[in-house]
Amino acid sequence: MDKSIYSPNLHVYTDGPAVARAFADHLVDKLEERGEGPFFWALSGGSTPKLLFKLLAAEYQDTIDWSRLHFFWGDERMVPYDDAESNYGEVKNLLFDHVPVVKEQIHPVPTDLEPQAAAEAYAATITELLPQNSDGLPIFDLNMLGMGGDGHTASIFPDNMALLTSDAICAVATHPESGQKRVTLTGPVIDASDEVIFLITGSSKTLRVAQIVNREQLADSFPAAHINPTSGNLHWFLDRAAASEVGY
Ligand SMILES: O=C(O)[C@H](O)[C@@H](O)[C@H](O)[C@H](O)COP(=O)(O)O
Description:
- Belongs to the glucosamine/galactosamine-6-phosphate isomerase family. 6-phosphogluconolactonase subfamily.
- It comes from Neolewinella xylanilytica.
- The chain has one domain: Rossmann fold (3-Layer(aba) Sandwich).
- Helix content is 30%, strand content 17%.
- The chain has helices at 16-34, 47-59, 87-96, 115-129, 187-191, 206-213, 240-243; strands at 9-13, 39-43, 69-73, 75-77, 142-145, 170-174, 181-185, 196-200, 234-239.
- The protein binds 6-phosphogluconic acid.
């Protein structure tokens, strides 16, 4: 990792709910800033996003013009949508069933297909709907990511760092412990996003966050440490627990 260029904008909040609220308010600001037109948002799975989806459903019904939003996923588990493991199913239960989203603007990974076919079909949808940059890569307006305890992000795991530089838009990944098949956006597509925001909370992430933000040697082995959007709009929304070993 080129230590001279990797420096996420850190935002530290009291706890998980405060991180979720900060993200929700940022989304409102981003939509206002854009004025009008479609807004392409890639969601992530994980625990902190659950807090966000519940908050949006409870308090942001009237604050957000839901008709502008197109929903995608940074990664998805290859399970049925009604499976407890489904990232899409999670958002449907916590958010989509409670706010006036436009059904046709929800673009889940087609997990009823075989993994490779699902990745190709999902990539075709993304290519069809999103604007592209000068490299022909789709531009998400906002890419929301988490970071696993092993430093993975989306479903780019430490044992498959090649996905960080893949020329595919989406790829099939395998969870290193469970063997679960996933579809994930690749590193170059994530880095083509107009803005990338990591939501990282809890003491289980303290060491990893410190290793990456303090640019310790080990950082190179964590996929999350390599996400660096060409826009420069890289933000880490942390709670105090996750940020407690960051050297300012
Ligand atoms: O599908 C997934 O599992 C997520 O996309 C994954 O990348 C997640 O963001 C991290 O594992 C962090 O999850 P937590 O926030 O629950 O620690």
